[in-house]
Amino acid sequence: MFEEAQYFAPVAANEDGSVTVQLAANHPGFADPIYRARRNAIAALAVGHTRGDPIPHAEYTDEEHEVWALVTRELAAKHHKYAVTEFVNAAEELGLPTDHIPQLEEVSDLLTPLTGFRYLPAAGLVPLREFYGVLADGYFHSTQYIRHHSVPFYTPEPDIIHEVIGHGNTLASRRFADLYRLAGRAAQHVETEEALEFVSKIFWFTLEFGVMNENNELKAYGAGILSSYGEIEEFRGMDIRPLDLAAMGATEYDITKYQDVLFAAASLSHLEDVVGSFWATCDDDTIDKLRV
Ligand SMILES: [Fe+2]
C-alpha cells in the first residue's frame, strides 16, 4: 500500500450503510458508472471486515481478469531483467495465478505457509500506525479493486496489482518478510508522529522504492517499482544515492510521479544490516538524532 492520503480516492460511509468511493474527475474510471458501482461495493467489503474473519469475495469482470493476465505476463518478463534474484525466486515459490485476479484469501493461503503473512482488506488509506503496526503481526493491508480496464498499464492509485504482484511476491521471501515485520515492530515502538513518519520514510525508500546492486547491476526490490510497467524501465536512470538512514528520512518525495531519487543498498545483507537493524532497535531518541 502507498501511504499518502491524497493518493487514495476518499471513501465515504453513507447513512444507509453503503459506501461511496470518490474518484477524481481525471480518474480513468470516473465516467464509467458500472466500474464506480463495483468500486463502491468492493470498498464496502473492507469497511465491514473484522480481522480474523475470511475476507469477503470481490467481484471482477472478465475485462478486469484480462487486465491482470496481461499485466502479470508483461511484468514477469521485466522482473527477470530488473528484479533482485530474491524476489524472482520468491515469486516463483508463491505461484500467484496468472489468468485471474486472486481473491485476497487466496493470496493469504499461498503466502502463509511460506512466511506467515496474511492480507487484510483496505477500502482506501489506512492510518500509518495501523498500516505499519500490523506488519509486526504478519498482516498486510491491501486494496482489492483493480485499475480501470481502459488503461491496463496505468493506475493513479495503489490497486491489487501493486498490492499483490509488488508486495505479495516480496512477502513470499523470508528475508524480505522479516524486514516488513521489523518495520512493523518499529512503528509499534515509536511514540511521536515525527518518529513514525521517519520509520515510514525509510519504508518508502526501501521496501516501496528500493534498489540494490547485484552482480554489478542495479536491480529493484521495492514493490512500487516492481509493480509499475513504466517505472521499472526507468529506475536505473534516476539519481541513485547510497543507502543512508538520515538521508532517506530527510528526502522529500512526490508520489504522483516517478521517484527520481532512489537509495541503493550494496546487497540484501547490507539492507538487512542497515535498515533491518535500525527498525529492530530504533526508538524516539535514536530517530531524533538522525533527524538533523
Ligand atoms: Fe505499496
Automatic annotation (TrEMBL):
Q: Which residues form the Biopterin-dependent aromatic amino acid hydroxylase family profile domain?
A: 1-292
GO MF entries:
iron ion binding; oxidoreductase activity, acting on paired donors, with incorporation or reduction of molecular oxygen, reduced pteridine as one donor, and incorporation of one atom of oxygen
User: Which keywords does the record carry?
Assistant: Iron, Metal-binding, Monooxygenase, Oxidoreductase
Does Acetylation show up as a keyword for this record?
A: no
Q: Which residues does the record give as Fe cation binding sites?
A: 162, 167, 208
- What domain of life? Bacteria
Q: Name one Pfam family in it.
A: Biopterin_H
Q: Needs which cofactor?
A: Fe(2+)
Tell me which Gene Ontology terms the entry assigns under biological process.
aromatic amino acid metabolic process
Keyword Calcium assigned: no
What family does the database annotate?
A: Belongs to the biopterin-dependent aromatic amino acid hydroxylase family.
Q: Which protein is depicted?
A: Phenylalanine 4-monooxygenase
